[in-house]
Structure to design on (229 residues):
């Protein structure tokens, strides 16, 4: 891979900071923009309809990823009361945020394929999975884009977990209101349980994220390989 393990670790964290800053920023901006376009003024009133990435990131939570391998962001608040079609509009808003991350992953896969084409890299030497570590062969560009693709897919997959305060919970509110009301009564305990499962490395969460994310990564790889090769 790289010359030393230390260099690899440093590059991993540098790339991780860059990718998370971009991904969280665009994720939350998509949230604010979608809700605003559906006539909700809340993101504007909270100064969240802005391209400034630091308006969407909580510095303390962001630093925590390097300490306890867990991070969070400042979620954009919305108010469905302003929506003209509450059910369809809130469903659209719920899907808009993970869709942004999948769009970024799609873009990353496109860049990786173009890079391989320009550099005459054989398709079978490209990572067909995030876990194909051996195929990086010291190529920092491949390393960055594979990490970029997988993190954005993982963010989308994680956010679709139907538990508060994640995006997937909004679908529960739209389609299963009675169940959502029960969850809202225990939202603090559910959120704490979710954090504990993540920080403790529970296989329930991480297995789900890794398996689903890698499956989507492979699907993107197959689609782009058919187009480029």
């Amino acid at each position: 891979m790289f010359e030393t393990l230390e260099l690899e670790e440093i590059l991993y964290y540098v790339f991780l900071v860059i990718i998370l800053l971009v991904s969280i920023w665009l994720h939350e901006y998509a949230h604010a923009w979608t809700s605003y376009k559906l006539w909700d003024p809340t993101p504007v009133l909270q100064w969240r309809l802005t391209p400034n990435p630091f308006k969407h990131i909580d510095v303390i939570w962001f630093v925590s990823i390097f300490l306890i391998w867990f991070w969070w962001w400042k979620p954009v608040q919305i108010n469905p009361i302003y929506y003209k079609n509450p059910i369809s509009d809130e469903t659209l808003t719920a899907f808009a945020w993970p869709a942004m991350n999948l769009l970024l992953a799609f873009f990353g896969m496109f860049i990786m394929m173009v890079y391989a084409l320009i550099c005459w890299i054989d398709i079978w030497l490209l990572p067909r999975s995030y876990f194909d570590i051996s195929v990086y062969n010291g190529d920092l560009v491949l390393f960055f884009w594979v990490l970029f693709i997988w993190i954005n897919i993982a963010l989308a997959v994680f956010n679709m977990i139907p538990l508060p305060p994640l995006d997937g919970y909004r679908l529960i509110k739209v389609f299963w209101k009675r169940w959502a009301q029960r969850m809202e009564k225990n939202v603090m305990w559910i959120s704490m349980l979710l954090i504990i499962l993540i920080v403790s490395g529970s296989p329930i969460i991480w297995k789900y994220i890794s398996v689903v994310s890698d499956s989507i990564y492979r699907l993107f790889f197959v689609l782009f390989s058919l187009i480029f090769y």
Notes: The mean pLDDT is 79.
